[in-house]
């Protein structure tokens, strides 16, 4: 009996672990309405490049911004001609996180917009970052960490990665806060990242079970409203803390995603396939040009004539014939049935596309 009891305990623990592995926290499924980041963008100048900056003849905007910066610093450059190769005009982008406060730092990305060949070793000088409302919310400055390297000689050039773009960790300092009073909210709206009625209903159920009363209401497939007065929390922040770590098992639409460039196929666990027969073969049309040059006889009054000569051939591989793909009630059976066809991943993409057109593939088919 002891081995049997031990086996039952092990099976129960395995099933419990599998169930818990499928559970996802609410905070990983939803966004709190109003709690969001804001995109920032700015236009600046990177200096200190080792001859890899913009050519000012091809990028006149670099000369313009450099003149403006020098004039702000008290240097009169009116009528002067600049021809340095150690500066580059860049676009600076970043994201202002929710609840970011004045003085906090954020990461930024720097990208060249002229004909600079590399930003390696450059320094971004003070650049204001604007949001969509035109206001300045942060100021960026610092040493650029380029994402690649370049080596060039007289007859060869090697580029690895993207040397014309880089990042500056904590390279911008927040100068203005977003005007949003989170404590004044009386209702929280949870927006699902992937709208689904079943998932929204489960979120409503687990929140109401947690607070012991009907505080959450599913409005639609993508929104769950939470009445803060019914949660028993003394602030909206405390209410979010109480519900964001609750775990549910989300439901998603069955989906097959294929990347035709790399031949990658990704299937969700809910993909199902009906019984279907598949026949697949490759047809190759080959055309070859082999022109023939005909020379005149020696000392004759003639000229060389090129006679076109074309070879055309059609080749057809035997393929897989007519093969049956059985009904798959789970992902393992679907994969086993498709692998039984014995075709390459790129041929499998065409087969899945045809099965979807025949109505036997019960999933969304997404082509990237």
From TrEMBL:
<keyword id="KW-0282">Flagellum</keyword>
<protein>
    <recommendedName>
        <fullName>Flagellar P-ring protein</fullName>
    </recommendedName>
</protein>
<dbReference type="GO" id="GO:0071973">
    <property type="term" value="P:bacterial-type flagellum-dependent cell motility"/>
</dbReference>
<keyword id="KW-0969">Cilium</keyword>
<comment type="subunit">
    <text>The basal body constitutes a major portion of the flagellar organelle and consists of four rings (L,P,S, and M) mounted on a central rod.</text>
</comment>
<keyword id="KW-0966">Cell projection</keyword>
<dbReference type="InterPro" id="IPR001782">
    <property type="entry name" value="Flag_FlgI"/>
</dbReference>
<keyword id="KW-0574">Periplasm</keyword>
<keyword id="KW-0732">Signal</keyword>
<feature type="signal peptide">
    <location>
        <begin position="1"/>
        <end position="21"/>
    </location>
</feature>
<dbReference type="GO" id="GO:0005198">
    <property type="term" value="F:structural molecule activity"/>
</dbReference>
<dbReference type="GO" id="GO:0030288">
    <property type="term" value="C:outer membrane-bounded periplasmic space"/>
</dbReference>
<keyword id="KW-0975">Bacterial flagellum</keyword>
<dbReference type="Pfam" id="PF02119">
    <property type="entry name" value="FlgI"/>
</dbReference>
<comment type="function">
    <text>Assembles around the rod to form the L-ring and probably protects the motor/basal body from shearing forces during rotation.</text>
</comment>
<dbReference type="GO" id="GO:0009428">
    <property type="term" value="C:bacterial-type flagellum basal body, distal rod, P ring"/>
</dbReference>
<comment type="similarity">
    <text>Belongs to the FlgI family.</text>
</comment>
């Amino acid at each position: 009996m002891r081995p049997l009891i031990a086996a039952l305990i092990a099976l129960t623990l395995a099933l419990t672990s599998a169930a818990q592995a499928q559970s996802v926290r609410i905070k990983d499924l939803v966004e709190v309405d109003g709690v969001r980041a804001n995109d920032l963008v700015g236009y600046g100048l990177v200096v200190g490049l080792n001859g890899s900056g913009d050519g000012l003849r091809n990028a006149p905007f670099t000369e313009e911004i450099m003149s403006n910066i020098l004039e702000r610093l008290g240097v009169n450059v009116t009528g002067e001609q600049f021809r340095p190769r150690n500066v580059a005009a860049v676009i600076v982008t970043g994201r202002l996180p929710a609840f970011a406060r004045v003085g906090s730092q954020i990461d930024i990305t720097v990208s060249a917009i002229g004909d600079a060949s590399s930003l390696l070793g450059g320094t971004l000088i003070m650049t204001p970052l604007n949001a969509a409302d035109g206001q300045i919310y942060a100021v960026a400055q610092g040493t650029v960490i380029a994402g690649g390297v370049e080596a060039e000689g007289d007859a060869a050039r090697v580029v690895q990665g993207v040397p014309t773009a880089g990042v500056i960790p904590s390279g911008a300092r927040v100068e203005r806060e977003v005007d949003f009073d989170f404590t004044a909210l009386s209702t929280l709206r949870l927006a699902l990242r992937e709208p689904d009625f079943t998932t929204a209903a489960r979120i409503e159920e687990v929140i109401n079970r947690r607070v012991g009363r009907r505080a959450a209401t599913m409005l639609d497939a993508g929104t769950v409203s939470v009445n803060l007065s019914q949660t028993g929390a003394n602030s909206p922040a405390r209410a979010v803390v109480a519900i964001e770590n609750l775990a549910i098992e989300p439901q998603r639409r069955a989906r097959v995603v294929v990347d035709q460039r790399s031949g990658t196929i990704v299937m969700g666990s809910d993909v199902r396939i009906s019984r279907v027969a598949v026949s697949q073969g490759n047809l190759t049309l080959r055309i070859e040009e082999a022109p023939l040059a005909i020379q005149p006889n020696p000392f004759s009054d003639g000229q060389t004539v090129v006679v076109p000569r074309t070879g055309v051939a059609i080749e057809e591989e035997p393929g897989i014939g007519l093969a049956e793909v059985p009904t798959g009630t789970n992902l393992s059976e679907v994969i086993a049935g498709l692998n039984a066809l014995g075709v390459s991943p790129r041929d499998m993409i065409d087969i899945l596309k045809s099965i979807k057109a025949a109505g036997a593939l019960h999933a969304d088919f997404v082509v990237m």
